[in-house]
Amino acid sequence: MPALDLAQEELGYLTPEAMSEVAEALQLDPGYVEGVATFYSLFHHEPIGKHRFYVCTNLSCMLRGASGIVDHVKQAIGVERSDQVSADGLFSFEEVECLGACEYAPMMRLDHRYHYDLTNESVDKLIAEIRSPSTPDSVPSPLTPALSPKGERVRKARPTRKKANG
């Protein structure tokens, strides 16, 4: 799954060729890799927006307003269905079952970060931060990769390791 995740991150979605390359690299049957990729909803086989809203619509989130959040996300990014991408190519959305934070409902995942206790205003703020990444409030957490103004991952220089004396 991590190899498929890397391929999807690189291409934006999983192509048949990418799945075959993952199978070959890991010495797995291509059918097995395709089965894994088609089973999990976080793997995509068609182009999606550079930033994808995964809005939880399971019971706890639905009881706390997830349907309104979904409607607001669709309106804010200018799409009607989950198979559409915003006109600027930046956004798409998907309703997902459980993201495991029922006590903070409604919630969603966006760019590998989880957002809790959602309101229309908090969704609007996230969209504005992505469209204008120079906002002072858009400092990534240490667990979230830094993104360039184009939304691409910025590689951080790693400190050199000291060799152990042997």
Task: Write structural notes for this entry.
This protein is of the alpha+beta class. The protein folds into two domains: 2-39; 51-131, Glutaredoxin. Helices cover 36% and strands 11% of the residues. The protein has helices at residues 2-11, 16-26, 30-39, 59-63, 66-77, 120-131; strands spanning 51-56, 91-96, 108-110, 113-115. A hairpin with a 2-residue loop joins β3 and β4 (113-115). The longest helix is centred in the middle third of the chain and has 12 residues, at 66-77. The chain starts with a helix and ends in a 35-residue tail after the last helix. The model is unreliable at 135-145 (pLDDT under 50).
Largest sheet: 4 strands, mixed
CATH class of the largest domain: Alpha Beta
Low-confidence stretches: 135-145
Number of helices, counting only DSSP H or I runs of 4 residues or more: 6
Tell me roughly what share of residues is in helical segments: 25-40%
- Total domain modules: 2
Question: Structural class from helices and strands?
Answer: alpha+beta
Strand order of the largest sheet: 2-1-3-4
Q: Count the strands?
A: 4
Shape: globular
> What is CATH's topology name of the largest domain?
Glutaredoxin
User: What is the gyration radius calculated from CA atoms?
Assistant: 18 Å
Strand content: 5-15%
Q: End-to-end span in angstroms?
A: 36 Å
- Helices and strands, in order, run as HHHEHHEEEH
Question: At CATH's second level, what is the architecture of the largest domain?
Answer: 3-Layer(aba) Sandwich
CATH fourth-tier homologous superfamily of the largest domain: Glutaredoxin
| Average of the residue pLDDT scores | 85
